[in-house]
Specification:
The chain is an alpha+beta fold and 470 residues long. The chain is built from nine helices and 24 strands. It folds into three domains: 236 residues, lpxc deacetylase, domain 1 (Ribosomal Protein S5, domain 2, 2-Layer Sandwich), CATH 3.30.230.20; 63 residues, no CATH class; 150 residues, Thiol Ester Dehydrase, Chain A (Roll), CATH 3.10.129.
Amino acid sequence: MIQTQRTIANPVSMSGIGLHTGTECTMTFKPAAENTGIRFVRVDLGGNPEIPAVAEQVVDVSRGTTIGIGEAKVHTVEHVLAAIVGLQIDNIIIELDGIEPPVGDGSALPYVEVLQKAGFVQQEAPKDYLVIDETVMYHNEEKQIDIVALPLDGYRITVMVDYQNPALGSQHTGLFDLEKEFVTEFAPARTFCFLSEVESLANQGLIKGGDLDNAVVIVDHNLNENELKELGRKIGITENFTLGEQGILNNKELRFKNEPVRHKLLDLMGDLALIGAPIKAQILAARPGHKANVEFAKQIRKLYQQKKLVKKFQFVKKEGVVFDSNAIQRILPHRYPFLLVDKIIHLDMDKKVIGVKSVTVNEPFFVGHFPGQPIMPGVLILEAMAQTGGILLLNSFPNPEEKLVYFMQINNAKFRKPVVPGDQLFMEVELTQKKSKVVMMAARSYVNDVLVAEAEFMAGIVDREQKTEE
């Protein structure tokens, strides 16, 4: 796999109509600087709004993947993104003067060919690979969808589908060498749908840009000649077409025997581009679809953001430690004798954090609390839990070093057992509610798996005052 970032050498454009909206659009790919990522720009709207191709910006997955910010949206981005990922492009600007990219022939090949004409430029910055080092799983029981990412020093995807339809049956495929297989074996795989879906979409006024040249239609029930003509009228096809004898509308010839599942793999590649970084992993997917793909991409992107955050503050990797005391001091403003967290051993962004405080006889508060019978003050246990929660909260906002956590309310505080010298406090704090810059957390502290204290916190996130030179 390529080790440095890549962009294109020259701007290139293509024009056509969108699959679902049927609107005309010219799309221009432009080179981008290192660490830009993939960005869509709506040049037809005031201010040329820019939409990063990341999972947080997904606004609809009903018929393809749509991203947007405010009123600015781009429909059906998955095939364009698959082409970009398949060609290992990291940085690119995609300008559109419409709401949906040209559909081409329903595959990723038209985009691949245009990008190949543009040429490629290797940049100096290293690729920001997300290395999957533990199994990540997504499961949807209702639709029997499973997607799994496994550790692998490379990039592989295997997909299986089973539509309970004689024309398709069970199909599977796998991409094992991105550079050798993508352009010839997967980019040409066209989008497909069932005849019943075409009827439903046509009745809803969708697939306005669909025709028999940019989609494979699987026949899943019979229609008479008049019904076929009426369907053609609704989707704007004037040519005569037949149900076909092979289960494909108009007896359309497939490019691959298992073209539908290859296109599903293509869709998955495009949707996983929304992680925002190239990945090293083996992806296994059973019955994937856009909704599941995007949910999985969000899950992986969260892992990516967390790993970036850890690298930002934790300079030396330590087994079993997310943040050591030096990293904690880069995040929290507290200092001796009021820094009451020694290390963070677990962090699940926006969900849960576990901090550790080793209580020694040298703690300054033991001098007066109590002489001859040292006990850690309950208010300091609360403070230790609050500081641990502060790390979780600060990492939920951009530029945490520029923020402070102010605790506004403490509820249901209970102290169940005394904490004494030699004890090690394990503080678990979970985010229970988040509204703008006010959050709620539930905290518990344990010594030897015994609950010693618990409380609920309300806190606000504020900007840290910047010092200015006089």
